[in-house]
Amino acid sequence: MKLILAQEVEGLGAPGDIVEVKDGYGRNYLVPRGLAIGWTRGAEKQIQSIKRARDARAIQGKEHASEVKNQLEQLGVQLDVKAGDTGRLFGSVTPADVAGAIKSAGGPLVEKRAITIGSPIKTTGSHQVSVQLHPDVAATVRLEIVAV
């Protein structure tokens, strides 16, 4: 089955890529979850728009990734969350929360899929998360979790 990826699928490809997968995998997993759409000639226009959007967000090369890494590592990111009296959070911090905190702190736009949280953040205080900017470049961001 020939499909066009709408989102990044690990081990398969990036958005806009045309991939050949087994029928069951495409029909039962990729298409229902919105990860891919069926390939047709008319879908070629969608491929182009998806690739343009990806290129606009993508970090251009290793040098640019190093610049973004320096920005992120110098940035002090603070995330306000609801917590109990003991400093324990109601829930945990997600990669989407971290991406929003980086953006609101004046940092560059970072995709939530690029953020890796080692162990779940469930307490207030200082924590570190990793941001994969390029296959060869990863930044470590200091994150201060503050109870509201």
Description:
Pfam families: Ribosomal_L9_C, Ribosomal_L9_N. Binds to the 23S rRNA. InterPro entries: Ribosomal_bL9, Ribosomal_bL9/RNase_H1_N, Ribosomal_bL9_bac/chp, Ribosomal_bL9_C, Ribosomal_bL9_C_sf, Ribosomal_bL9_N, Ribosomal_bL9_N_sf. This is Large ribosomal subunit protein bL9. The chain has 148 residues and is of the alpha+beta class. Helix content is 31%, strand content 32%. The chain contains 4 helices and 9 strands, in the order E-E-H-E-H-H-E-E-H-E-E-E-E. The longest helix is centred in the middle third of the chain and has 14 residues. It is globular and about 55 Å long.
Radius of gyration using CA atoms only: 18 Å
Instruction: Give the beta-strand count.
Output: 9
Instruction: Give the proportion of residues in helices.
Output: 25-40%
Query: Element order, helices and strands?
Result: EEHEHHEEHEEEE
The multimeric state of the shown protein is: single chain
User: Largest sheet, order of strands side by side?
Assistant: 4-9-8-6
Overall pLDDT metric: 88
Figure out the total of helices. Answer: 4
Which structural traits does this protein have?
148 residues, 32% strand, 4 helices, 3-stranded antiparallel β-sheet, 9 strands, Large ribosomal subunit protein bL9, alpha+beta
Task: Give the SSE map.
Blueprint: E1 2-5, E2 18-20, H1 23-30, E3 36-38, H2 44-57, H3 61-74, E4 77-81, E5 88-93, H4 95-104, E6 115-116, E7 121-123, E8 125-134, E9 137-147
Parallel strand pairs: 4-9
Antiparallel strand pairs: 1-2, 1-3, 5-7, 6-8, 8-9
